[in-house]
User: What shape does this take?
Amino acid sequence: MEFISVERVEELLHIDQEPKGTIDPPASWPGFNSEIRFEDATIRYAPNLDPAVKNVTLRIPHGSTTAVMGRTGSGKSTLVSAILGVVRTESGQITIDGIDVAEVFVEKLRQRVTFVAQEPVLFAGNIRHNMDPLQDFSDEECTNALDRVCGHQGWRLDTEIESGGRNISQGQRQLLGIAVSQ
Ligand SMILES: Nc1ncnc2c1ncn2[C@@H]1O[C@H](COP(=O)(O)OP(=O)(O)O)[C@@H](O)[C@H]1O
Ligand SMILES: [Mg+2]
Assistant: This one.
């Protein structure tokens, strides 16, 4: 069993790396006055597949709460993944405050732009570990975020979460996802 893990790590060492990006965004980016624009964006998951999103042009004004509605499979989640550069545009552009997200250092893009996933990824460990795996924040900051979002759940930073969040409900997992994004 342990050698299967080694084999997997070995495989991961050989997969293509995503581009790291070339633009180091200013510290203030994205700001409250940044708008998100899709300009004629087409996104395809693989060359042999139809585009998941085709020639989309839209503007999300700064400070707005915007809802995108559409049938299952119409490409809503794809739009979000594209903002974080998880999937890339085949043609067209996505910009935040005029900066092309495809060009921004991916690490910075994903630190500064966040979204709460439909299915949050949770790890075995306590809530503190799930909220802040790299220990960038103080206990107090984590407790504040947890209380603000999950105040009624009676959770503490040392509350244990099972692998994948199996011991809490789907809705509670999403709440924890929101707390993490704070
Ligand atoms: N990882 C993927 N690989 C290939 N096709 C995908 C992938 N994710 C989504 N798709 C396809 O892209 C289209 C849009 O999916 P998605 O953005 O998840 O829709 P929605 O969020 O609106 O339900 C669908 O046809 C779906 O099958
Ligand atoms: Mg979706």
Notes: The mean pLDDT is 93. Strands lie at 36-43, 53-60, 89-96, 99-100, 125-126, 160-161. The longest strand covers residues 36-43.
